Each structure stands twice: as structure tokens, then as C-alpha cells.
């Protein structure tokens, strides 16, 4: 069976009521996982909303026996109306405990603060139920084939690796305050899908295929209830021939206000090889050059955002299997024995390393254990990781938010 494009086209909403906060819910009353799918967390990325609507309509019209519940959610409604990435600030960058506590307490400083509060109002009753699978649908300003991103914890892998598209590790660790990073730290599952370029009509199709495959992988759907499942898998596989199965982020180029105007040189696409020293963009200071050889990821061909581009490199499946075994056996107790490494004096879940050693072999060992977040502190490097425990928790900053508080249905 082959697939053709169908369902709602990739169109932006004509007005405030075009997309409610909760796009829809579907359940057949059978016990199972809660899956929350978010579209348009960035307002200029509407394709995910169309894909979510297609899948909800398909399930409803067919009376499909879904296990658990699927909830479709609109991300940045106000930016969506204005067809902009964000209104005041990036909605996918300030999901930190301190900011969440401020917003829950009622201190709303930006349009995106209000969006965050409304999203939390939708999420809170679901978080109280138990583990939630969050799927965040995005698109890119530059040309791209589909790929997924996840925080490097084991519970995310089955969902991400169920798709025949590249998996990018480390993006959630180098970007501060992402929504999925925050929810993952609470013990939930979170995978983001970059479905293609914003206005490419195929992006809706790719998102639809990815969502159906992930619902099967999550245990929400049985494969026999998706008779065209093989065709959806083939759709994604066909555009990713020759791509690495897994890669990791090595470098993030941060754009500061004083760097603007930042302009990517034309023609860069995701997974394109760039050489160390190659000019890839320009800013107020002059040419911007790649700091190392690797694969170009997420070049910024839009006016908003402080991520200029990323550099990635392939990771072998063998490395993934080794890392899974090390974590399952809890061999991270050996980390303090690595050369030049010691426990952080104040935080038990952090390690301090000598940068002269850690930048080479030791850094790779840290990655195997999931320690992908690294920051400089004086003359040392501090490594940390996402919360590995699978049991969800409700943090103190969310305890004050009542169920349903600030939920907006229309």
C-alpha cells in the first residue's frame, strides 16, 4: 500500500478561535498510556496541528480501540495567530523550576508566560495520573528530512527508535529550558519530531506517519488496527536513505543580541557535512566558521531565535547498546574513578572534571552514562544528566497549581 497526502492542508489559522488549546481527545475506554501530542509550540510551525487533527479524526471516525488516551494540544496560540516563532520570547526555552514557580505564583511578564500557565493547566491533571508520553511536533526553517530529538534517558529510546528516521541526542541538553527537558526531568517520556520545512506540504504527512508509528510503539494502538502502518513506515524510510541512524550534538552556535544581524549562508540543509573552518554564516563581526568537522543541523533561516546552527556527528548503534547496559547495571558508580573526575562538592548528581582530560576520552564515557550537559565552572567542567528514574514526580513548583487552573478550551 502506498500513501498519498490527505486531510487538512498546511494552512495557518485565520483567527484566535481557529485552534483551541486542546485540539481534541480520544479514548475508547480501555486502560493504557496517556499520550499528549503538542503542535505549534513555535507559532510559525503549524504543520504538527494538521497532523494531530488528522490522526484524531482517523481514530474517531474509525472507532479505533485505542488503549489509554490521546490528547492533542496547541502550543503558542498567540504566536500562531501572528505567524511568528514567538511573541515576546521562545516558549520552548524557559521551562525551568524557577520560571515555572514564578508563573504558577501568578507573575506573568510575557505572552509566553501566559501560554506556559495555560499549558500547565492542561498538563497537570494528566501528570497526576502517572507516566505520560509527550510527543512534540516541530518543523524547520531550512530544508530538512524528518528526524527525532530526545533527552538521553533510556525510557525515551523505545519511542524514538521506533521510527525509521535519524535520532539526534544531546539537543535537549545544550538547549536550556526546553519543555520536553522539564517534563522528562519529572520522570515522563518526551520525544520531539522535526518533520521537515515549515511550509513543505509533506511535513504534515511525515508528522502523521510518525505519530501513528509512535502510538503503536507506546502500546496505545495494536499494529493490526493500523492497516496502512507499513506504508507509513515506508514513507519515512524513503526520505532518509543514507542518513545516520543516530547522531549527537557537538556544538551549538548561540546568537547574542550584539551579533545581529546573523545570516546563514544559503544552501545548508540538515545532515550536510561541513568542514572545520568553513564559513557557514555571517554576523556583525564578520564570517562565522564551523569550529569542527561534522554535520550541519538546524541552520537558522528565520529572523527569530538565538540558535544559529548546530554541529553533530554520528553515533553507532553499538554505543547505544553499551550505554543501555551500563545504565541498566548502574555502573555509573564507577564514574568518580575516571581520571581527573570527582564528585561535585555540593551536588551529588554532578561530577567535576579536569578539562584537559575530559574533552577527549572521559567526555565520551560521560555520554555513555547520559551525562551530556556540560558547563564551565572556573577552571573545571561540570557534567550532569537528566533524571534517570522512571517514576514520575510532581515538583514543589507545580503543587500550588490546581487541576484545570488556567485551562483554555477555546
Automatic annotation (TrEMBL):
Signal peptide: none annotated. Gene3D superfamilies: Zn peptidases (3.40.630.10). This is Succinylglutamate desuccinylase/aspartoacylase family protein. The keyword Zinc applies. Pfam families: AstE_AspA_cat. The keyword Hydrolase applies. The lineage of its organism: Bacteria, Pseudomonadati, Myxococcota, Polyangia, Nannocystales. It comes from Nannocystis pusilla. It comes from the Bacteria. Residues 31-152 form the Succinylglutamate desuccinylase/Aspartoacylase catalytic domain. Its cofactor is Zn(2+). Residues 1-26 are annotated as: Disordered. Keywords: Hydrolase, Metal-binding, Zinc.
Amino acid at each position: 500500500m502506498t500513501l498519498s497526502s490527505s486531510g487538512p492542508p498546511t494552512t495557518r489559522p485565520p483567527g484566535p478561535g481557529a485552534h483551541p488549546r486542546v485540539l481534541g481527545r480520544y479514548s475508547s475506554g480501555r486502560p493504557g498510556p496517556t499520550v499528549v501530542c503538542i503542535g505549534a509550540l513555535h507559532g510559525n510551525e503549524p504543520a504538527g496541528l494538521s497532523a494531530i487533527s488528522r490522526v484524531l479524526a482517523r481514530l474517531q471516525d474509525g472507532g479505533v480501540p485505542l488503549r489509554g488516551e490521546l490528547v492533542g494540544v496547541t502550543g503558542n496560540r498567540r504566536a500562531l495567530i501572528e505567524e511568528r516563532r514567538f511573541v515576546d520570547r521562545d516558549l520552548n526555552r524557559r521551562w525551568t523550576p524557577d520560571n515555572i514557580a514564578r508563573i504558577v505564583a501568578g507573575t506573568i511578564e510575557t505572552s509566553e508566560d501566559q501560554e506556559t500557565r495555560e499549558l500547565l493547566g492542561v498538563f497537570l491533571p494528566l501528570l497526576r495520573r502517572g507516566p505520560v508520553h509527550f510527543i512534540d511536533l516541530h518543523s524547520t526553517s531550512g530544508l530538512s528530512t524528518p528526524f527525532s530529538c530526545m533527552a538521553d534517558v533510556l525510557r525515551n529510546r523505545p519511542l524514538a527508535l521506533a521510527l525509521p528516521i535519524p535520532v539526534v541526542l544531546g539537543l535537549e541538553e545544550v538547549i536550556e529550558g526546553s519543555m520536553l527537558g522539564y517534563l522528562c526531568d519529572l520522570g515522563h517520556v518526551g520525544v520531539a519530531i522535526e518533520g521537515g520545512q515549515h511550509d513543505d506540504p509533506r511535513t504534515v504527512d511525515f508528522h502523521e506517519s510518525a505519530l501513528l508509528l509512535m502510538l503503536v510503539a507506546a502500546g496505545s494502538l495494536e499494529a493490526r488496527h493500523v492497516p496502512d502502518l507499513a506504508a507509513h513506515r515506508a514513507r519515512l524510510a524513503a526520505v532518509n536513505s543514507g542518513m545516520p541512524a543516530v547522531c549527537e550534538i557537538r556544538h551549538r552556535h548561540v546568537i547574542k543580541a550584539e551579533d545581529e544581524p546573523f545570516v546563514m549562508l544559503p544552501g545548508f540543509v540538515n545532515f550536510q557535512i561541513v568542514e572545520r573552518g568553513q564559513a557557514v554564516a555571517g554576523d556583525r563581526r564578520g564570517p562565522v566558521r564551523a569550529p569542527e568537522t561534522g554535520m550541519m543541523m538546524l541552520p537558522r533561516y528565520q529572523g527569530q531565535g538565538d540558535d544559529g546552527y548546530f554541529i553533530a556527528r554520528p553515533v553507532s548503534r553499538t554505543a547505544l547498546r553499551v550505554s543501555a547496559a551500563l545504565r541498566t547495571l548502574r555502573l555509573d558508580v564507577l564514574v568518580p574513578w575516571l581520571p581527573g573526575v570527582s564528585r561535585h562538592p555540593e551536588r551529588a548528581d554532578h561530577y567535576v572534571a579536569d578539562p584537559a582530560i575530559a574533552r577527549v576520552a572521559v567526555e565520551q564515557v560521560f555520554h555513555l552514562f547520559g551525562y551530556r550537559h556540560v558547563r564551565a565552572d572556573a577552571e573545571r567542567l561540570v557534567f550532569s544528566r537528566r533524571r534517570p528514574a522512571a517514576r514520575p514526580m510532581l515538583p514543589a513548583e507545580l503543587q500550588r497549581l490546581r487541576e484545570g487552573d488556567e485551562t483554555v478550551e477555546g
